[in-house]
Model the fold of this input.
Amino acid sequence: MNAPFTQLGETIALADLRDRHEVARIEGFVREHRGTLFQRPVWLLAAERGAGQRARGLIAEKGGQLVGWLPLSEVHSPLFGRALVSSGFGVGGGVLAARERTAHALARAAAELAVRLSCAEVELRGGPAPADWTVTEDSHANFSAPLAETDEAQLLSVPRRQRAEIRKGLARDFVLTVGNGSEDLAIHHAIYAESVRNLGTPVFPRSLFGAMLDAFGEDADILTLRLDGQPIASVLNFYHDGAVMPYWGGGLWAARAARANERIHFEVMRHARARGCTRFDFGRSKTGSGAYSYKKNWGFTPEPFAYSRWTAPGQTPRDINPNSEAYSARVALWKRMPLPVANRLGPVIARGLA
Done:
């Protein structure tokens, strides 16, 4: 694809993400323009290696210089159809460009690419979009705030009721481990799989988490809490642009009574501060959900998060909203599914939820 824009003197082309020099060039562009974790090519490539969703992307150039980038994952699923998503398995993404006209041109080029690939839609998780696209701004919110300079200051930044819950967790005799090796991954995925099954959600494949840890190296790790020698809660974290993002985490049923969820998030804050991070990115949650309320209880202010969608003529937008009416019965069924069965079937289904 090469589409010249005479009014801008720019061209758009497919990025060659098999070329390490091209990947390095785009990584530099994302870094220079303070892009998100999910706009990095290494995220797309790790998602491809770990879950099979093809890493793609479109670049805009002017005079041989990058002026725009749109990361894309080609998502394919027998249950949820085909789509181009920016970015697969991410809660952010979208176009990164200095000029709005460049951003809109990249989005329209993505729609053209979707048609060529027989994808029913393009979904941008953040960033600008053309005026004729469907934009939703009230379905999700992001939660992010500066890290305090000390543990006590961090506690005092939390509203009193939630602070009391954190102190209960701090009083328990947990053992904390930090790592990114195969044993850390195995323990984390076992806890995560049981946690999301209990919520009625198919688990992502362990290979996805392994690919992410390999791709991000020291910029990703796993924190795990043990109580009486048994792993009870675990979270996989990413570090990007001075912020820590606890991304895939979970706890067993016993974690709630032991306040392990409160303790582990506080430990992530403490650990990130020691690494030199200055922000805690609690990530995106669906408006009105339990996770949304939980993050507000920590004192985080919800920031509206825009999703943009283009649907091909004659196609129906894919529905991957777990709160939709169509999903309620499936969620209830999944919660009752035996864990070994859920762990076997979940990754097959979850690949389509990218």
About this structure: Residues 94 and 127 are 5 Å apart (CA to CA). The chain has a mean pLDDT of 89. The longest strand covers residues 65-77. Residues 182-199 form the longest helix (18 residues).
